[in-house]
Design a protein that fits this description.
The protein is an alpha/beta fold and about 250 residues long. It contains nine helices and ten strands. A six-stranded mixed sheet has the order 6-7-8-3-9-10, with helices on both faces. A four-stranded antiparallel sheet has the order 2-1-4-5. Helix 3 runs parallel beside helix 5.
Protein backbone atom coordinates (compact mmCIF):
# COMPACT_ATOMS: atom_id res chain seq x y z
CA UNK A 1 0.00 0.00 0.00
CA UNK A 2 2.81 2.37 1.01
CA UNK A 3 6.49 1.88 0.38
CA UNK A 4 9.71 3.79 0.86
CA UNK A 5 12.61 2.85 -1.38
CA UNK A 6 16.13 4.00 -0.37
CA UNK A 7 14.62 7.16 1.14
CA UNK A 8 16.99 9.70 2.70
CA UNK A 9 16.24 13.00 4.41
CA UNK A 10 18.37 15.61 6.14
CA UNK A 11 18.10 19.10 7.59
CA UNK A 12 20.79 21.76 7.67
CA UNK A 13 23.48 19.41 6.48
CA UNK A 14 22.63 16.73 9.06
CA UNK A 15 21.11 13.36 8.23
CA UNK A 16 17.73 12.54 9.79
CA UNK A 17 16.90 9.46 7.74
CA UNK A 18 19.59 7.31 6.22
CA UNK A 19 18.61 5.08 3.27
CA UNK A 20 15.36 3.49 4.45
CA UNK A 21 13.44 0.70 2.75
CA UNK A 22 10.01 0.01 4.22
CA UNK A 23 6.81 -1.61 2.99
CA UNK A 24 3.49 -0.92 4.77
CA UNK A 25 1.11 -3.80 4.17
CA UNK A 26 -2.47 -3.14 3.13
CA UNK A 27 -5.12 -3.61 5.81
CA UNK A 28 -2.68 -3.92 8.72
CA UNK A 29 -1.52 -1.63 11.51
CA UNK A 30 2.18 -0.81 11.54
CA UNK A 31 3.63 0.85 14.64
CA UNK A 32 6.78 2.95 14.22
CA UNK A 33 8.77 3.39 17.40
CA UNK A 34 12.15 4.57 18.59
CA UNK A 35 13.88 7.12 20.82
CA UNK A 36 13.36 10.86 20.41
CA UNK A 37 14.99 12.27 17.28
CA UNK A 38 15.25 8.92 15.50
CA UNK A 39 13.18 10.07 12.50
CA UNK A 40 9.69 8.70 13.30
CA UNK A 41 7.72 11.85 12.50
CA UNK A 42 9.90 12.64 9.49
CA UNK A 43 9.08 9.19 8.12
CA UNK A 44 5.35 9.82 8.55
CA UNK A 45 5.52 13.25 6.88
CA UNK A 46 7.35 11.73 3.91
CA UNK A 47 4.52 9.20 3.52
CA UNK A 48 2.03 12.08 3.37
CA UNK A 49 4.08 14.28 1.06
CA UNK A 50 4.50 17.02 3.66
CA UNK A 51 8.23 16.51 3.20
CA UNK A 52 10.13 15.36 0.14
CA UNK A 53 13.06 12.93 0.30
CA UNK A 54 16.52 14.10 -0.62
CA UNK A 55 16.98 10.75 -2.34
CA UNK A 56 14.86 7.69 -2.95
CA UNK A 57 11.15 7.38 -3.60
CA UNK A 58 7.88 7.16 -1.68
CA UNK A 59 5.13 5.17 -3.39
CA UNK A 60 1.43 5.06 -2.58
CA UNK A 61 -0.67 2.29 -4.10
CA UNK A 62 1.95 1.86 -6.83
CA UNK A 63 2.29 5.56 -7.65
CA UNK A 64 5.39 7.56 -6.82
CA UNK A 65 4.51 10.68 -4.80
CA UNK A 66 5.29 13.84 -6.75
CA UNK A 67 4.19 17.48 -6.71
CA UNK A 68 1.81 16.64 -9.57
CA UNK A 69 -0.22 13.98 -7.76
CA UNK A 70 0.37 14.62 -4.07
CA UNK A 71 -2.82 16.63 -3.45
CA UNK A 72 -5.05 13.96 -4.98
CA UNK A 73 -3.26 11.17 -3.12
CA UNK A 74 -3.51 13.05 0.19
CA UNK A 75 -7.28 12.86 -0.11
CA UNK A 76 -6.88 9.09 0.25
CA UNK A 77 -4.82 9.46 3.44
CA UNK A 78 -6.15 10.49 6.85
CA UNK A 79 -3.74 12.24 9.22
CA UNK A 80 -4.03 12.66 13.00
CA UNK A 81 -1.40 14.47 15.07
CA UNK A 82 -0.81 14.90 18.79
CA UNK A 83 -3.61 16.88 20.47
CA UNK A 84 -5.62 16.69 17.26
CA UNK A 85 -4.30 19.74 15.44
CA UNK A 86 -7.81 21.19 15.11
CA UNK A 87 -8.29 24.69 13.70
CA UNK A 88 -9.27 26.83 16.72
CA UNK A 89 -11.45 29.25 14.74
CA UNK A 90 -13.69 26.45 13.42
CA UNK A 91 -16.24 24.47 15.39
CA UNK A 92 -15.67 20.76 15.79
CA UNK A 93 -18.17 20.23 12.99
CA UNK A 94 -16.39 22.76 10.79
CA UNK A 95 -13.11 20.92 11.33
CA UNK A 96 -14.61 17.54 10.47
CA UNK A 97 -16.34 18.61 7.26
CA UNK A 98 -13.65 21.00 5.99
CA UNK A 99 -12.23 18.70 3.32
CA UNK A 100 -15.65 17.42 2.25
CA UNK A 101 -16.82 20.98 1.64
CA UNK A 102 -13.60 21.76 -0.22
CA UNK A 103 -14.24 18.76 -2.46
CA UNK A 104 -17.81 19.88 -3.14
CA UNK A 105 -19.72 17.10 -1.39
CA UNK A 106 -23.50 17.37 -1.35
CA UNK A 107 -24.99 18.53 1.95
CA UNK A 108 -26.97 15.31 2.44
CA UNK A 109 -23.84 13.21 1.87
CA UNK A 110 -21.97 15.27 4.48
CA UNK A 111 -24.76 14.81 7.01
CA UNK A 112 -24.92 11.04 6.47
CA UNK A 113 -21.16 10.73 6.87
CA UNK A 114 -21.24 12.87 10.02
CA UNK A 115 -23.86 10.61 11.58
CA UNK A 116 -21.80 7.53 10.81
CA UNK A 117 -18.63 9.08 12.22
CA UNK A 118 -20.32 10.28 15.42
CA UNK A 119 -21.43 6.71 16.04
CA UNK A 120 -18.00 5.32 15.16
CA UNK A 121 -16.10 7.79 17.36
CA UNK A 122 -18.69 7.58 20.16
CA UNK A 123 -19.28 11.31 20.30
CA UNK A 124 -22.60 13.10 20.73
CA UNK A 125 -23.62 15.22 17.71
CA UNK A 126 -24.22 18.20 20.02
CA UNK A 127 -20.50 18.23 20.87
CA UNK A 128 -19.74 19.18 17.27
CA UNK A 129 -21.19 22.64 17.89
CA UNK A 130 -18.34 23.43 20.30
CA UNK A 131 -14.96 24.92 19.44
CA UNK A 132 -11.70 23.06 20.14
CA UNK A 133 -10.97 25.13 23.26
CA UNK A 134 -14.30 23.96 24.69
CA UNK A 135 -13.50 20.26 24.19
CA UNK A 136 -11.74 17.86 26.52
CA UNK A 137 -8.53 16.20 25.35
CA UNK A 138 -10.37 12.98 24.58
CA UNK A 139 -13.06 14.83 22.63
CA UNK A 140 -10.44 16.68 20.59
CA UNK A 141 -8.83 13.39 19.62
CA UNK A 142 -12.18 11.88 18.66
CA UNK A 143 -12.98 14.92 16.51
CA UNK A 144 -9.52 14.76 14.92
CA UNK A 145 -10.13 11.09 14.10
CA UNK A 146 -13.51 11.98 12.56
CA UNK A 147 -11.84 14.66 10.44
CA UNK A 148 -9.23 12.18 9.22
CA UNK A 149 -11.87 9.56 8.42
CA UNK A 150 -14.39 11.95 6.79
CA UNK A 151 -13.32 11.21 3.18
CA UNK A 152 -13.11 7.46 3.94
CA UNK A 153 -9.36 7.30 3.25
CA UNK A 154 -7.48 4.14 2.31
CA UNK A 155 -4.67 4.87 4.79
CA UNK A 156 -4.67 6.42 8.25
CA UNK A 157 -1.47 8.02 9.62
CA UNK A 158 -1.31 8.87 13.34
CA UNK A 159 1.58 10.74 14.96
CA UNK A 160 1.55 10.04 18.72
CA UNK A 161 -2.19 10.85 18.87
CA UNK A 162 -2.61 9.85 22.53
CA UNK A 163 0.65 11.08 24.04
CA UNK A 164 -0.78 14.28 25.56
CA UNK A 165 -3.78 12.63 27.25
CA UNK A 166 -4.03 11.70 30.91
CA UNK A 167 -3.60 7.96 31.62
CA UNK A 168 -7.30 7.10 32.16
CA UNK A 169 -8.50 8.79 28.96
CA UNK A 170 -5.55 7.36 27.05
CA UNK A 171 -6.36 3.86 28.27
CA UNK A 172 -9.99 4.21 27.16
CA UNK A 173 -9.12 5.63 23.75
CA UNK A 174 -6.54 2.93 23.09
CA UNK A 175 -9.25 0.30 23.29
CA UNK A 176 -11.67 2.34 21.18
CA UNK A 177 -9.07 3.07 18.50
CA UNK A 178 -8.04 -0.57 18.24
CA UNK A 179 -11.68 -1.60 17.77
CA UNK A 180 -12.10 1.08 15.08
CA UNK A 181 -8.96 -0.01 13.24
CA UNK A 182 -10.03 -3.66 13.29
CA UNK A 183 -13.60 -2.83 12.29
CA UNK A 184 -12.66 -0.61 9.34
CA UNK A 185 -9.85 -2.85 8.09
CA UNK A 186 -7.84 0.14 6.91
CA UNK A 187 -4.10 0.45 6.50
CA UNK A 188 -2.84 2.25 9.62
CA UNK A 189 0.60 3.66 10.45
CA UNK A 190 0.99 4.73 14.07
CA UNK A 191 3.99 6.60 15.46
CA UNK A 192 4.52 6.20 19.20
CA UNK A 193 7.34 6.45 21.73
CA UNK A 194 5.75 3.72 23.85
CA UNK A 195 6.57 0.08 23.17
CA UNK A 196 3.53 -1.23 25.07
CA UNK A 197 1.27 0.94 22.91
CA UNK A 198 3.06 -0.23 19.77
CA UNK A 199 2.59 -3.84 20.86
CA UNK A 200 -1.10 -3.27 21.61
CA UNK A 201 -1.89 -1.69 18.24
CA UNK A 202 0.68 -3.03 15.83
CA UNK A 203 0.45 -6.09 13.62
CA UNK A 204 4.04 -5.15 12.86
CA UNK A 205 6.53 -2.99 14.77
CA UNK A 206 9.29 -0.96 13.12
CA UNK A 207 12.07 0.10 15.48
CA UNK A 208 14.20 3.09 14.44
CA UNK A 209 17.48 4.43 15.75
CA UNK A 210 19.34 7.44 14.34
CA UNK A 211 17.39 7.39 11.08
CA UNK A 212 17.81 3.69 10.38
CA UNK A 213 15.50 0.71 10.77
CA UNK A 214 17.10 -1.54 13.35
CA UNK A 215 14.46 -4.27 13.30
CA UNK A 216 10.90 -4.87 12.13
CA UNK A 217 8.47 -7.65 12.93
CA UNK A 218 6.17 -8.66 15.76
CA UNK A 219 6.82 -7.91 19.41
CA UNK A 220 7.74 -11.55 19.84
CA UNK A 221 10.40 -11.16 17.15
CA UNK A 222 11.94 -8.22 19.02
CA UNK A 223 11.78 -9.99 22.37
CA UNK A 224 13.01 -13.44 21.32
CA UNK A 225 15.18 -12.62 18.30
CA UNK A 226 16.67 -9.12 18.82
CA UNK A 227 18.69 -8.00 15.81
CA UNK A 228 21.32 -6.28 17.95
CA UNK A 229 22.08 -5.12 21.48
CA UNK A 230 20.18 -1.83 20.98
CA UNK A 231 16.91 -3.78 20.64
CA UNK A 232 17.51 -5.48 23.98
CA UNK A 233 18.44 -2.17 25.59
CA UNK A 234 15.32 -0.48 24.20
CA UNK A 235 13.08 -3.29 25.47
CA UNK A 236 14.76 -3.21 28.88
CA UNK A 237 14.29 0.56 29.17
CA UNK A 238 10.53 0.17 28.62
CA UNK A 239 9.99 -3.06 30.54
CA UNK A 240 7.88 -1.42 33.28
CA UNK A 241 5.09 -0.65 30.81
CA UNK A 242 5.32 -3.71 28.63
CA UNK A 243 2.66 -6.39 28.82
CA UNK A 244 3.30 -8.95 26.13
CA UNK A 245 0.22 -9.92 24.14
CA UNK A 246 -2.32 -7.63 25.81
CA UNK A 247 -3.65 -4.15 26.45
CA UNK A 248 -0.84 -1.93 27.71
CA UNK A 249 -3.09 -0.62 30.45
CA UNK A 250 -2.44 2.44 32.58
CA UNK A 251 1.23 2.74 31.84
CA UNK A 252 1.33 6.26 30.42
Amino acid sequence: MLSLEAVQKGYGGGSVLQPVDLVIDRGRTTAIIGPSGCGKTTLLKLMLGLLWPDAGEVRFDGQALSPRNVEALRHRIGYVIQEGGLFPHLSARGNVILLAEHLGWRRDAIERRLQDLCQLAQIEPAVLRRYPAELSGGQRQRVALMRALMPDPDVLLLDEPLAALDPMIRFQLQGELKAIFEGLGKTVVLVTHDLAEAAFFGDAIVLLRAGQIVQQGTLEDLVTRPAEAFVEDFLRAQRAGLFVGGNPGRHA
